[in-house]
Amino acid sequence: MAQARTTSIRTAAGKAASAKTQSGTVADELVTVLRDTVVSLVRRDGPDLSSRQLAVFLTCYLQEEGHTVRGLAAELNVSKPAITRALDRLGELDLARRKVDPLDRRSVLVQRTLKGAAYLREIRSIMGEASAPKKAEKETRAGRRAA
Helix crossing, 114-146 with 2-43: angle to 10°? Predict the structure, then answer.
């Protein structure tokens, strides 16, 4: 009975180690895709966004609800002036614009733009290209294991 429990513990430990290795591999792949995407964005003709500007941009474009400077600051856990600076840059590039809320003139709404939507499509395309070799490599490895 003790031997069966020891074997069971070893099996569980082996599975946990395997899961940890797999999640580490996934994380490594995601970091590589992120790096390749950022490098592609930097190399192409067009605006370079800081990580904060990119975080504000992606938050505005990937979440459907309306955004305010105050709400973005709370969600990203940064100061309102930091959001304002990021939005200044996004506004210069016509990737987002600010508008005073007509219902509450103290509040500033963040609006999407057509150029911003095109930029998001470009990011998605670059990320797809960056992740394609990783997917092909993973499928090749899985095919070898199955054979």
Answer: 140
User: DSSP 3-state assignment of 16?
Assistant: helix
Instruction: Give me the mean pLDDT over the 28-44 stretch.
Output: 90
Q: CA 90, 92, 95, 101: dihedral to nearest 10 degrees?
A: 80
CA atoms within 13 A on the CB side of 38: 11
Per residue in 107-143, pLDDT tens? 889 999 999 999 999 999 999 998 886 555 656 665 6
CATH number of the domain residue 86 falls in = 1.10.10.10
Number of domains in the chain: 1
> What range does the domain containing 56 cover?
2-146
